[in-house]
Design a protein that fits this description.
single chain, alpha+beta, two-stranded antiparallel ribbon, two-stranded antiparallel sheet
Length: about 80
């Protein structure tokens, strides 16, 4: 990092705004997304994790639950 970025970080960085999981879901739904999963940090410090899909074109999974690759082999999408 540059000296400038080190100084910004040392001073506290740029301000940010906090959003609740409900606010995130509402924001996404107004843009045509559907929430598939959410993992919150339970009110503690940390990052919440969200998985959304385009509500207009949901991804269908073949029998077995794994997304199929180009060659027919299962691929791990990283989602439960």
């Amino acid at each position: 990092m540059s000296l400038w970025h080190d100084m910004i970080d040392w001073l506290g960085g740029y301000p940010f705004e906090v959003a609740t999981p409900g606010e995130i879901k509402a924001f996404a739904e107004t843009r045509g997304l559907r929430q598939l999963a959410v993992k919150t940090c339970g009110g503690r410090h940390g990052c919440n994790e969200f998985v959304f899909e385009n509500a207009a074109s949901p991804v269908s999974e073949p029998a077995g639950g794994a997304a199929s690759g180009v060659d027919g082999a299962a691929t791990n999408q990283g989602y439960p």
